[in-house]
Amino acid sequence: MLILIAGPYRSGTGDDPDLMAANLARLEVAAWPIFEAGHVPMIGEWVALPVLRSAGATGVSDPLAERVLYPTAERLLAHCDAVLRLPGASTGADQDVAIAQKHGLPVYYRVEDVPIH
Q1: CA–CA separation, 117 vs 37, rounded Å?
Q2: CB atoms < 10 A from the CB of 54, how many?
Q3: pLDDT of the chain, 117 residues: tens digit per residue
Q4: Whole-angstrom distance, CA of residue 92 vs CA of residue 8
Q5: The pTM is what?
């Protein structure tokens, strides 16, 4: 399965780059267990941030960010087989879960619940 890892990235950071990097690192901790279970992990920021940079945006507070960050996750979800929702307040991650549920995709809330392939 291609599994989107969803959780806080910008939430609660005040757009501080160090805090956002720490949030991304927390999301990435789940990548190895998903891979080890036989799946492909995906984090929306892995795609959205390079797209944002290549569009000439100055960062996540740039007006272009609204056209890239959430839409990237939504486009990715069209190709994903499941979502792993990690703890923490996040409007974007909550949207990811809602989209996944709308499309009948499984949503896991603990990495231990992801099935082994």
Answers
A1: 6
A2: 9
A3: 999 999 999 999 999 999 999 999 999 999 999 999 999 999 999 999 999 999 999 989 999 999 999 999 999 999 999 999 999 999 999 999 999 999 999 999 999 999 998
A4: 8
A5: 0.94
